[in-house]
TrEMBL record:
Cell compartments where the protein resides: Cytoplasm; Nucleus
This protein's name: Importin N-terminal domain-containing protein
Gene Ontology biological-process annotations: protein export from nucleus; protein import into nucleus
Gene Ontology molecular function, alphabetical: nuclear export signal receptor activity; small GTPase binding
Alphabetical UniProt keywords: Cytoplasm, Nucleus, Protein transport, Transport
Record-linked Pfam families: CAS_CSE1, Cse1, IBN_N
Family assignment from sequence similarity: Belongs to the XPO2/CSE1 family.
Coiled coil spans: none
GO terms under cellular component: cytosol; nuclear envelope
PANTHER family found in the cross-reference section: EXPORTIN-2, IMPORTIN-7, 8, 11
Amino acid sequence: MEMNPELLSQCFLHTLSPAPEPRRAAEAKLTEAADHPNYGLAVLRLVSEPSVDEQIRHAAAVNFKNHLRSRWAPSSDSSLSPILDAEKDQIKTLIVSLMLSSTPRIQSQLSESLSLIGKHDFPKSWPTLLPELISNLDVASRNNDYVSINGVLGTANSIFKKFRYQYKTNDLLLELKYCLDNFAAPLLEIFLRTAVLIDSTVSSGGGSPVILKPLFESQRLCCRIFYSLNFQELPEFFEDNMDKWMNEFKKYLTTTYPALESSADGLAVVDDLRAAVCENISLYMEKNEEEFKGYVEGFALAIWTLLANVSQSSSRDRLAVTAIKFLTTVSMSVQHVLFSNEGVIPQICQSIVIPNVRLRDEDEELFEMNYIEFIRRDMEGSDLDTRRRIACELLKGIATNYRTQVTELVAVQIQNLLASYAANPVTNWKDKDCAIYLVVSLATKKAGGTSVSTDLVDVQKFFAQVILPELQSQDVNGFPMLKAGALKFFTVFRSLIPKPLAVQLFPDLVRFLGAESNVVHSYAASCIEKLLLVKDEGRLPRYNAVDITPFVQVLMSNLFNTMKFPESEENQYVMKCIMRVLGVAEISAEIAAPCIAGLTSILNEVCKNPKNPIFNHYLFESVAVLVRRACERDVSFIPAFETSLFPSLQIILANDVTEFLPYAFQLLAQLVELSRPPISPNYMQIFTLLLSPDSWKRNSNVPALVRLLQAFLQKAPQELNQEGRLSQVLGIFNRLVASPSTDEQGFYVLNTVIENLDYGVIAPYMVHIWNALFTRLQTKRTIKFVKSLLIFMSLFLVKHGSANLVDTMNAVQPNIFMVILEQFWIPNLKLITGPIEVKLAAVASGRLICESPALLDAAAVRHWGKMLDSIVTLLSRPEEDRVEDEPEMPDIAENVGYTATFVNLYNAGKKEEDPLKDIKDPKQFLVASLANLSARSPGRFPLIISENLDAANQTALLQLCSTYNCPIV
């Protein structure tokens, strides 16, 4: 497509069409045109053409922004052609003036575009940007043109934001100095000038909202730029002019502006400025307390007064939260003495904390309309920016220095709230909710653990008197927010609730799974799931299969039924509970059959449209844990599981459900590993698919495919001799080992081949294997690769002998074995970690020096000694505990998504096989081998040892000999 302005204009017009055909055709033309040089410039010129309809120009501006995002600095793996430097220079010449002269909608898009360029090019590759912005700011300021002023400030705000988020480096500080030297003075000038305009406009009759709104927006942007420029450290210019800034900041917290505040829109504009001020003074409080101390008392008083007048409307939440955060910061600083005056803490509790902790209409609405967001804020701690949580954080902050006073005060408040509820439960139920919330939110977590404690109440007494009546209520749907609060309390203080009482309440928790409220049944599921994780002394689980056996069938039935409630079809809390129960319960046929049926039914449904990655992960974990635990108990379950799962897994493979492929391959690997030879023909069809190069194109699938390939190699090694399959497997190894991102996976394949096939089968391929490994060693050597190579060589040696190892390596190039030994094996042996790997490397190295003619040759004396020194270093490292706790399954992070990364199924985990099960102690093996060798060659080794082992290793070797009663000499 030519860069004809009229054709471009028509294309953008058609992209706005509601009809799909012209829209798609226009989008395809634009995508094709975007590959041509000067496309971005042509679109920008179209945006600048005032005769073109604004809708078309806006669509072009959005397209221009997206074009820059993908092509200004495309990633190394992008197939898109980058914008050429000559075009970039022209765009940079035009964009500032065009952005400032555009209408607000287009200005917004171009400002974002400018920021995208600035992210990559400012300041080094765009030295004219800041001078041009300052020049335009000066002109606009003289003309009182606040559209342009705010355009400049908005752009400056965007490009300076990086100073908030990037690590402090010399380069960043140099860029910051450049920005401060050029922009700090103009920023203060426009801030003070706008302040005078606001004051004069207000004093001359209040002013109109139309005039005041852009002025307040300008001050807000100045405050955000102030925040960015002060974030790393306090600049000298801002320290010298602190009075000017702080006086204006305080004025916006203490002055009312009736002309604006009389409308919701106007109030939001004023509140946004006040919130920005609160963030600035909080920043100074945190980072520049010494320089700021003279202003703290005045600001604290201003904020106390302000908060007393901030309504409970959700539209004012951000101001309330930022203001309370400032007081919280003050409460934990040396300025905390401000809270010591008589009556201050009770006043804060009465006028700030309790009003902000009480449920509001907005909270009830969120509870009913968006249960996932409610839980995210309430249970998962993402509510730090909500009034309820920040009010409790303020109390915690004050308690840092005034614990007794705060505890006594809040304890009294809790009793008053509970008394109010008792007087009229129907009307005053929110008082009970407030009391429960205070106890839960002010609980302190013990360092390094999950258990919590509180000084506010006797937990067990509070549980019996306040929580138990809610949990034992037969009406699971009455007062749902109170039920949710009670379940949350049980969950948070679960380790403090005696086991007999908790077990007695399990059936009540199971009942609550049938509550109509999504929050309530989610909290019930979460409570059960978290209870099953509680551990007592000795890391032993408090609750086991015996505890849940009496009601496990109704529990599982209720969990699956819970997902039939509207909006709970993909409830991640319920699915996580299913997974946890299956990991604890005794898996009988009565449990396994309905569970696998229920899980595969859900799986078939989510395959149609995978949209909740956390739910789907726990779904696959549930299938994996059910298969693992049922088949560990009774292998006769395997055919039933295969019958149930195969159709679902085939849907995933046949429809190329990208998000689920790694999961499907891991489940198939689990099933293959559990199967008994001969392998079913169904699996062998998948084996054929697995060997196709197309299957390995997506890196996100590689770890799961390797796991599946390993399972086949272990279970059906004889199949590799048929139809050239071993060549195909080694082709996969070759591809994987060539890249640093997949080389470890390549070694997994290779090690499994070496471990499971006879030497006669692999011998013809060894030169090819060594060639691939040595090529990679020469071209892209990494520590990880060298360690993997060492493990491979060790495994080859213990499986097929040192002679075959030396001979096959030297067949590639004469004497290369000794080169590899000297340059890689000996110096890197000490880097090996992991109990199985350390044993393997130590035993293989020991056999090499005690059995291999290549090392026992007189010419190799120096290598022999150095190798022994490395083995002793490896084995002398402090041993970690041999018996380690089985790691808990990690929680899947909230931000897990369907990205190009592999997500491991914990419950389908592969047990690491020990290739040297017969050798229990590698130290004893080494000493015994040396003793045998010494018996065959008496007197030969003391001198070699003294010349090649350092003093520490000589001592360590003598201690080993003494320990195992095996003298070398």
